[in-house]
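Below sits my pick:
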Amino acid sequence: MIEELLLAGCDERIAIRPETGANQYHLHPTKYEGLLMRGSCTCGTLTPDGQRSAERFVRDYQAADDASWIRQQTKRMQTLFDGGRGDEFHIYYGPSGSDMMYWPLLMQSMLHPGQTITNIVSCPEELGSGSILAAEGKYYANTNQYGDAVPKGEIVTDSFHVDVQFLPAREVSGHIADRKQAIRDIIAARPGQPIVGNLVFGSKSGIKDDLDIIDEFREGVMWVVDMCQFRTHPALVHELLSKGVMLMVTGSKFYQAPPFCGALLVPKFWTELLMGQPAEHLRDYGRLFTAADAPPDLPQLRSIWPDHANAGLRLRWEIALDEMEAYLAIPQEETDALIRRWSRVVIGRLALSDRFGMMPDMELTNDSIISFTVSAGGRELDYDELKKLFDTLVLGEHPSLNGFKRVFLGQPVRYGKRSFIRLALGSYSIRKLMEPNGFDPYNDLHVVDLIERTAIELFES
């Protein structure tokens, strides 16, 4: 029953492929034993704690009580991130982080019917795999949360038009691009037009946009920060919400729940502006969202979308929320110290070999993600070669690991004509490393050895 639910209510990315017995990321959500997880920037599996959460959910959940589960999960998330001020934001749900890209477009179409919506999207090449198509108002997958086929790449509805402005994450050199002036220019060229400003805090390589740009344009822009990696301190979440910024989050990256589960944290005043606004033109989005994904304050949306209990999504959020509560109960300075210690160990090992190159501006990214290039045969591996390296490492068994036999890394990421690979710590892994005598760098050092050795075997022999 647990496996059945974990594989339902999303899209084809979570489906198990018969040839590998795993999803497209080479993971099976219930097969976590013996797996060293160092790819939380891509997606997760169950953990021993997650298994217990899932068993409790399967025992207690009834579809007839789905609305009650949503209320409870919403309250739990509000309690974690509202800064102690009570119910200051609403939560809009969806099957994955990619679906959160639609919500601001839907909102602007309700507030500004008939007008073209400018959608500024920062770091598109480092966002989730479906986010680029979703930013254009297109179907990003071949199936939806109901299990029905949808036409990937086609516009969901022609009832509103989106003008997307993509701003690259990195320069050709690999250095993180400064996107502030480009954002200013786009806004200045569109006075009085509805604009969504999508920034990122914690991309695939941990990039953090300069969020000060929000203070320059407090009026006239619907600001949204992609925090889907969710490698973020609660204080920043509260600070941004207090400025009227919406936040895209997931529980299946840093918090290591199985893929996928998305939510948009929305300051209450935005919902209040939407109350009473027409929504009939968004009926086609019922192929992507259920009535329950919209908050109760927006009955005009809930009435035109299917009444469907997505038990798989509820299960994934239950696992994620249990993990969030466990992790955030630990003092922040202690978890930060552990992350820095791990990062120094791994970066130190990478620096010992000419086959690895650290991505520029690492000091501007999150310490829990380490991004690096790999070279073999005197040249830097390209994306396809890194993907072959990734596949070989993740699909193989490694008995030389201590207490584990498999390893999961972060998938390769392109930037321009170059690419890099990643190692990333998640919350459960951090908690285990913080246990008495839990910090043993052997496995992390050995993973780097395995990457180097495998690159030599694949591309130098």
Notes: The domain at 62-325 is CATH 3.40.640.10 (Aspartate Aminotransferase; domain 2).
